[in-house]
């Protein structure tokens, strides 16, 4: 469990980071994990933060495309669910995210 420390004088000086509207769910199907990954990577677009998801520096999308070294993420689970060949799965993942974006007709 993660905790945050609030400034002195704030009621309940510490609380769970994932309290309130945030929650965890069990992902029990590889297909759902793929959809969820695309959804998460596309979140910066409807928020108006960036025009292209590759431009959002805090997204792991560049790690999934192997355009940046993955330091805290491990895209292998998602990529292997697409194809065992890494370069092929990266290409197909990028195509999937683009198709997901078009299908959902942002905003998400």
Could you characterize the architecture of this molecule?
With 108 residues, the chain is mainly alpha-helical. It has one domain (25-104). The chain is 40% helix and 6% strand. Strands 1-2 form a two-stranded antiparallel sheet. The mean pLDDT is 79.
Main traits of this protein?
108 residues
The beta-strand count equals: 2
Low-confidence stretches: none
Total helical elements: 4
Q: Proportion of β residues? A: 5-15%
What general outline do the C-alpha atoms trace?
globular
Helix/strand class:
mainly alpha
Averaging pLDDT over every residue, what do you get? 79
The percentage helix is 25-40%
- Tell me about the largest β-sheet: 2 strands, antiparallel
- SSE sequence, one letter per element: EEHHHH
Summarize the structure.
With 108 residues, the protein is mostly helical. Helices cover 40% and strands 6% of the residues. It has one domain (25-104).
Secondary-structure blueprint:
Elements: E1 3-5, E2 14-16, H1 30-42, H2 61-64, H3 76-82, H4 86-104
Antiparallel strand pairs: 1-2
């Amino acid at each position: 469990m993660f905790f945050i420390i609030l400034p002195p004088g704030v009621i309940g000086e510490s609380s769970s980071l994932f309290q309130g509207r945030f929650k965890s769910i069990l992902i029990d199907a590889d297909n759902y994990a793929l959809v969820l990954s695309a959804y998460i990577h596309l979140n910066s677009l409807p928020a108006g933060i960036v025009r292209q998801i590759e431009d959002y520096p805090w997204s792991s999308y560049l790690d999934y495309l192997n355009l940046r070294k993955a330091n805290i993420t491990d895209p292998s689970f998602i990529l292997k669910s697409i194809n065992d060949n890494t370069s092929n799965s990266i290409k197909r993942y990028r195509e999937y995210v683009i198709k997901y974006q078009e299908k959902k007709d942002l905003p998400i």
